[in-house]
Amino acid sequence: MLIRMDVENVDPALAGLSKKQKKKLKQQQQQQQVDVDGSEGKVKKFDPSRNFRRSAPTFIFFTVLPYMFQVSHRYSVLWST
Fold this sequence. Notes:
The chain is an all-alpha fold.
């Protein structure tokens, strides 16, 4: 028997509030997050994968590709004899 359980991340500040109250609270929070110059901008969220994505090309070019060329050269020498 397969039982599926959905788990939601519930904000403790929103727990037990009606939909109207939640919407009003979210709007208030968004109004508080105004830039210094007074213009509303997109809220910046923490992106944990940003460092990985920025370092991936460097890793590929300086580590993976040289290793691949070295391995392919060794196999080409072995198969040519």
